[in-house]
């Protein structure tokens, strides 16, 4: 292969890469500040009404976006959050600490489909919406119930509601053995947010797809979310 051929191939690869990147618009509709976390992407303070846009490369997998609450960071971007903290960094390099609501996705996977979901497997801290906003794909996911206000006593945590796996760390709740089913606690989440993951094997009713190249929005406190959480912030 000649040098010019290699250069042309690399240029075409880069063009393909950027033309198929997905744009994620992350908006804070809450009446309080939320610090968005994203892997890949890092993190951003979002005051009420602010939006943060991310360009994510085609083929990205095991990715997530989540809200963090009650954070304090110094000028170097170091500090802590009550919920969703990522090793004390404003610009997250790893996943957040439960409890936190999750928007998860993998781009351009099987048959060039994007797979996306809202997960409560790490618990809940802020109402969330995860929806496509381009390409004719319209089926989104919302979890807007007052989960913090109704959280079972066993799962309550400062600023949020834990998933039972975080609290009990057993096969029954964490599915470590790969052999588990719904529980009393997972049904608590499922009854309130039927489209969200409530336990690790909850795939059939909780994973959604769009064609590769679709853009998305993630909204903290969608317009119809119950705002009782504000009293805890």
Number of domains: 1
Q: H/E order of the elements?
A: HEEEEEEEEEEHEEHHHEE
Query: Which stretches are poorly predicted, pLDDT < 50 over at least 5 residues?
Result: 1-18, 226-233
Share of helical residues = 10-25%
Shape: globular
**Average residue pLDDT:** 89
Main pleated-sheet profile? 7 strands, antiparallel
Number of helical stretches of at least 4 residues: 5
Residue share in β-strands: 25-35%
Q: Rg, please?
A: 19 Å
Pfam families: Thaumatin
InterPro entries: Osmotin/thaumatin-like_sf, Thaumatin, Thaumatin_CS
Family: Belongs to the thaumatin family.
Keywords: Disulfide bond, Signal
Structural descriptors:
233 residues; Thaumatin; globular; disordered C terminus
Describe the structure.
The protein is α+β, with helices and mostly antiparallel strands. The protein has one domain: Thaumatin. The protein is built from 5 helices and 14 strands. 40% of the residues are buried. Residues 1-21 form the signal peptide. This is Thaumatin-like protein.
């Amino acid at each position: 292969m000649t040098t010019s051929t290699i250069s042309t191939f690399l240029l075409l690869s880069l063009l393909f890469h950027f033309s198929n990147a997905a744009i994620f618009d992350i908006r804070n509709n809450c009446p309080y500040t939320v610090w968005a976390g994203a892997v890949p992407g890092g993190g951003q303070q979002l005051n009420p009404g602010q939006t943060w846009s991310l360009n994510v490369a085609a083929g990205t997998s095991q990715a997530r976006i989540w809200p963090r609450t009650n954070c304090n960071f110094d000028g170097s971007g170091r500090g802590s959050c009550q919920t969703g903290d990522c090793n004390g960094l404003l610009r997250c390099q790893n996943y957040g600490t439960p409890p936190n609501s999750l928007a998860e996705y993998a781009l351009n996977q099987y048959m060039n489909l994007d797979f996306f979901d809202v997960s409560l497997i790490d618990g809940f801290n802020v109402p969330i919406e995860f929806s496509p906003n381009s390409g004719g794909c319209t089926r989104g996911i919302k979890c807007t119930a007052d989960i913090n206000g109704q959280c079972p006593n066993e799962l309550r945590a400062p600023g949020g509601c834990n998933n039972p796996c975080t609290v009990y760390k057993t096969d029954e709740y964490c599915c470590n053995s790969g052999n588990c089913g719904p529980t009393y606690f997972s049904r608590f989440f499922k009854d309130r947010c039927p489209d969200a993951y409530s336990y690790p094997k909850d795939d059939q009713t909780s994973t959604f797809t769009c064609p590769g190249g679709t853009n998305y929005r993630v909204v903290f406190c969608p317009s119809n979310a119950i705002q009782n959480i504000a009293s805890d912030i």
